[in-house]
Structures are given as structure tokens and as C-alpha cells.
Design brief:
The protein is globular and about 55 Å long. It is α+β, with helices and mostly antiparallel strands and 162 residues long. It contains 2 helices and 9 strands. The strands form 2 sheets. The chain has a 5-stranded antiparallel beta sheet with strand order 1-7-6-9-2, with helices on one face.
Length: 162
């Protein structure tokens, strides 16, 4: 998959947390297997800590990709999200709408975070919305990198218009 920031049409989305997804799946597998301290199967709290660290790291990488855009301006106020839902693969999706208030066609990079009801970060992705005409809106879909359980909330962490 092409990396975000490639402005020449090689992809519309940068998945920031592939490593986080693997760590979360591994932690979930340990938890559902009933591992606990002292049974020789590993430390569940260590696995959960590593998963949380991987998600935080992925979030930082996604933020870095946003900040790499040259000539971009903060557009968080020009982006809104729909209600999260689950697609056929069990991944969380949310409609992202960018309003171009500029006087020429612009593109947007939007970092969407997915959190549980307690506000714990579960995943983060960067979605690009290309060539939004001046004075118009355009939609895209942000999709989690893995299955997320429970009441998932989506927020715009960062948005840049360029």
C-alpha cells in the first residue's frame, strides 16, 4: 500500500497502525486464552501495555504524516464526521466530510481516532480527500485497521487543507 503524503495518486489512505493492530490482536488472544501472572503463559498486563504503547506510537506516526504536508493549513473546523458503523469485515468506518472554504480546489488530510466509551485510543488512521472544489464539500470513509469492539467513538484529531 502506498504511503500517505504521495500526492500523485498512489493511494488515498495511510494506515498508521498496522503494528498496533498486530499488537492488539496478540493482546486480545492472550486475554481470551485466560493467561495470567504465574502460569508460565506470560504477563497479560505486559501484553496490554505493549498493545497500548503500539497504538500510541501509531498515533504519533499518523500525526507526523500530517505535519509533513508542506503549505498545509489547519482545517479541523472544516471537517466533520458521521456516526461510526461496522462494515461487512467487522471494521469500524465513519464518513468524513471536508468543506473547502477556500477559493480554489484543495485536498485534505484527516487523522481520525477511534476510541472506546472510556476515551481509550483503539486505532487511528489518516484519510485523504483529494481535489475538493472551491466552496464545495466532498466525502471519504475512514476505516479502522482492525476490528474494534464496544461503543466506538470517532474524532478528528487533526485535519490539514493543502
Amino acid at each position: 500500500m502506498a504511503r500517505f503524503g504521495d500526492r500523485y495518486g498512489y493511494g488515498d489512505r495511510y494506515r498508521a497502525s498496522g503494528a498496533a493492530a498486530a499488537a492488539c490482536v496478540a493482546a486480545l488472544a492472550l486475554l481470551t486464552a485466560g493467561c495470567s501472572d504465574g502460569d508460565g503463559g506470560g504477563n497479560v498486563s505486559d501484553a496490554a501495555s505493549k498493545a497500548a504503547s503500539a497504538v500510541a506510537s501509531a498515533s504519533a506516526r499518523a500525526g507526523e504524516k500530517i505535519h509533513e504536508i508542506k503549505g498545509g493549513i489547519d482545517a479541523k473546523g472544516d471537517v466533520r464526521l458521521g456516526k461510526p458503523s461496522t462494515d461487512g469485515d467487522g471494521r469500524t468506518t465513519v464518513k468524513v466530510t471536508a468543506d473547502n472554504t477556500g477559493d480554489s480546489s484543495k485536498s485534505f488530510a484527516v487523522q481520525v481516532t477511534f476510541k472506546n466509551a472510556d476515551g481509550k485510543l483503539l486505532d487511528t488512521v489518516v484519510t485523504r480527500i483529494s481535489d475538493v472544489p472551491a466552496g464545495k464539500s466532498k466525502d471519504a470513509t475512514a476505516r479502522s485497521t482492525h476490528k474494534l469492539d464496544g461503543g466506538v467513538k470517532a474524532d478528528v484529531a487533526t485535519a490539514v487543507r493543502y
